Amino acid sequence: MSNELDSRFRPFRVVAKVRESSTITSFHFAPLNSKHWQPFEAGQFLTIQVPDQSRRGYVVRNYTVSSSPSDEGLYRITVKKEVASTPGVTDGVASCWLHDAIEEGAVVNIDGPHGAFKLDQTSNRPVVLLSGGVGLTPTVSMLKVLAEKSGRAVWFIHACDGGATHALSREVEDLAARRSNIHVHYCYRFPSDDDVRLVKFQSTGFISRETLQTLLPLDDYEIYMCGPPPFMQAMYDLLTGLGVDKRRIAYEFFGPARLLSRSEQRESSAPRAPVVKPIDDAADGGFKIILQKANANFTWDSDSESILGFLEKQGIEPPFSCRAGVCGSCLQDLVSGDVEYVEEPLEDVPPGRVLLCCAKPKSSVVLDL
Ligand SMILES: Cc1cc2nc3c(=O)[nH]c(=O)nc-3n(C[C@H](O)[C@H](O)[C@H](O)COP(=O)(O)OP(=O)(O)OC[C@H]3O[C@@H](n4cnc5c(N)ncnc54)[C@H](O)[C@@H]3O)c2cc1C
Ligand code: FES
Fold first, then answer.
1. Is 244:215 a contact under the CB 8 Å cutoff?
2. Distance between CA atoms of 131 and 136, rounded to whole angstroms?
3. For residue 270, what pLDDT is reported?
4. At what angle do helices 169-176 and 136-149 cross, to 10 degrees?
5. Residue of the nearest CA to atom 7 in ligand 1?
């Protein structure tokens, strides 16, 4: 199985390595075989192989494509170097490998693009692109599409520490200058004297309710946001507090994620007790999804794209990240039952476990959730 799965990866050459800020660098990739470039939608990510000492010889990490889908034959990723800030903790494996070991001309194996966090190009609603730190990679790609292909009103709002770490600012400003009705707002947490002198930002500290209220006239926005978890939770709470419809807020985490809207349910979740009930698929004509610890029992709805999506519809929030069978964040114990994979997981799934994001039930299943 591993060889077959390895074949999802295709070799790409690094055709440019561009330093974007003191901590962030972009890598531009072109396929060795032109057929290996696949179209993507703004917001999607690539999975790259990073060599290591494991039996398999590599680990994988996901990086959002920060270039435009119209740049056919090229992908650009924009990566923050994750350096350990506490003694005893190691530096980030993949981000440091990319920054320190990968130069122009190197070959990197890439799978994808993948991902459900995508700009809806069928809509005409005004768009808010909201990012924190390196979370601007999907919103920059989305801004490119919006500037090139739509007349929709756009607010590009970005928070970061300051001018030294701020990536892609010139690019964003050039895109905003291409047409009217694209608004840019930068919020610096720790602006330097130079940042102040050069007027590189519009607000300081954290993005506040007042900032959003001032920037965004009352309207029916679509929000796309990406950033560190505390930023995302704060923005989600501010936006919903301002009356933005939860269904209009799409978001991506760069690590294991949980649904932002479910915090109330998390706090009030019922005490857990094991269920020991016979499972009868035929009783009401559908497979059962049984959560052993939560003592909950649902009938599978065949419209759901995966067990993960189905559970989210029921208000359950298992962890997830890539939603593409790549990262392993949604791996759960499968107590009983059979599943099939709608997207082949990147790695063999151990017996008795299931990747919820890409599996559908083939029988009633009991999960250790
Ligand atoms: C869908 C998706 C899209 C993404 N897009 C981007 C993107 O566009 N740009 C980007 O920069 N990133 C992106 N990421 C994040 C990226 O995939 C990596 O997670 C990130 O680069 C860190 O990987 P790493 O191997 O460098 O760090 P890891 O080795 O995984 O370590 C992560 C962090 O933990 C720390 N750490 C390491 N070991 C330990 C330990 N033992 N105890 C405690 N802490 C430890 C490291 O110092 C580091 O800060 C994305 C992630 C996802 C899921
Ligand atoms: S969420 Fe990444 S494998 Fe399922």
1. no
2. 5
3. 34
4. 20
5. 63
Fold of 10-114: Elongation Factor Tu (Ef-tu); domain 3 (2.40.30)
pLDDT score recorded for residue 167: 98
User: How close is the Cα of 30 to the center of ligand 2, in Å?
Assistant: 26
Joined together, the tokens standing for residue 187 give 């919020």
Query: CATH says 127-265 is which class?
Result: alpha beta
Q: Please choose, from the candidates 329, 325, 319, the residue with its C-alpha nearest in 3D space to the C-alpha of residue 360.
A: 325
Instruction: Supply 43's token pair.
Output: 């917001």
Cα separation, 209 vs 169, whole angstroms: 23
What value does the CA radius of gyration of the chain take, rounded to a whole number of Å? 22
Distance CA 241, CA 209 (A): 9
Q: Which residue has the tokens 């933005």?
A: 244
Q: Could you tell me the distance, in angstroms and rounded to a whole number, from the CA of residue 214 to the centre of ligand 1?
A: 34
Residue with tokens 């999506």: 309
Report which bound ligand comes closest to the CA of 49.
1
Strand segments, DSSP code E, in the chain are 10-19, 24-31, 45-51, 58-64, 75-80, 107-114, 127-132, 154-160, 182-188, 203-204, 222-226, 249-252, 288-291, 296-299, 331-336, 339-341, 353-355, 359-361, 365-367
Q: What is the CATH number of domain 288-367?
A: 3.10.20.30
Same fold for the domain at 10-114 and the one at 127-265?
no
Consecutive 10-residue averages of pLDDT for the chain (369 residues): 63 98 98 96 94 82 96 98 88 95 97 89 96 98 97 97 98 97 98 98 96 89 94 94 92 72 43 40 73 93 91 84 79 95 84 94 95
Using alpha carbons, list the distances in angstroms from residue 148 to 68, 123, 124, 144, 204.
9, 15, 14, 6, 30
Q: Ligand 2 — pocket residues by CB below 6 A?
A: 320-323, 325-330, 355, 357
Show me where the domains of the chain are located.
10-114, 127-265, 288-367
Closest-CA residue, ligand 1 atom 29, reads 92
What is the distance in A from the centroid of ligand 2 to the CA of 190? Answer: 35
Which residues have CB under 8 Å from 301's CB, separation 6+?
286, 310, 313
